[in-house]
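Extended Data, panel c. Modelled sequence:
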Amino acid sequence: MTMRLKDGIFLAPFHPLNEDPTLAIQRDLELIEHLDRLGYEEAWVGEHHSAGFEIIASPELFIAAAAERTKRIRLGTGVVSLPYHHPLTAANRILQLDHQTKGRVMFGVGPGLLPSDAFQLGIDPSTQRDRMVEAVEVILRLFKGERVTHKADWFTLNNASCQLKPYTWPHPEIAVASSVTPSGGKLAGKHGFGMLCVAATQAGGYDALGINWKIANETAAANGKTMNPEKLRLVGPVHIAPTREEAWANVEFGAREWLKYMTSINPAGMMMQREGDPLKHMVEDGVAVIGTPDDAIAQIKRLREKQGDFGVFLQLATNWAPWEKTKASYELWRRYVTPVANSMNTQRQESYDHAVGNAAEFMQAATNAVMSTIAKHHAETEAAKK
């Protein structure tokens, strides 16, 4: 039996340079409200400090506001770039959110994606993955309520502890960003964390997905743990509409500016640089879905055939389409993709087929019951006259 697939988004966010940033952030909050109403289970929010396109610098601030506007959707940091933060303050912010959201916050961690962020902060990119691991080890101790003394070359803790116990036992769910390198898989496996495969559908990330999951499982086994595929989250771009033609017309609104950014600034986009239309290549290669709900269903099937069961598919919030078309795409996913991915209508179909297949028998029985009731009424009426 296939594992139930949850729906979510990965909100970097991406906003072109000609838009008002205030309105853009407000629209991001409105999107989370929209997804909550539709029944999406998760939304992950990114942290970036440069390049102008991904304009949320503090996912924790955004999550605090989004939590007040929503009822049930879980909200994750996607991710806190741990080398940019002192572990004690990072732990305290997450624990505060754990209480403010009453357990709806998830702690996504990573080394930091944009090299321009690291350069601004005076951080050597070659140190970021080791620093991420070092920070996580300390944060886990702080989550347990320990007093920690630890001196690193980039932070110091002197008999430090968090004031709050976690609201969530034993602590908020932790997920590690994983793309091409095995560092995320190793860290997830060591501690049994979830994995955020942010390049799951991209050529490089897609090829490495199975390898990194294998590394995570091997590392988990070596540490007496088991990786849970329900905590495996795959990320990919999606825009759907009633027809492919409409979907392609919609994405002309913003996809080209997004592509320009991804191919020139973001290292994850360098692989898109090749002859021809890169947007069409993305669809042809299975990197993105631009089409109908059936195309989205095919993407989920393809990922399952490659990876096996996984717990959540996170649509990358690209803002390729106009606002109303973007909201409609997310609704189409819930209306037509989710039911197929989770076989939600199989019993409805069986019930329908049973009723239709036996309609003659059922209708004859109903007709006989009506005629019998009429006949009984006539008989009773005649008897009353005598």
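The mean pLDDT is 94. This feature is highlighted in the accompanying rendering.
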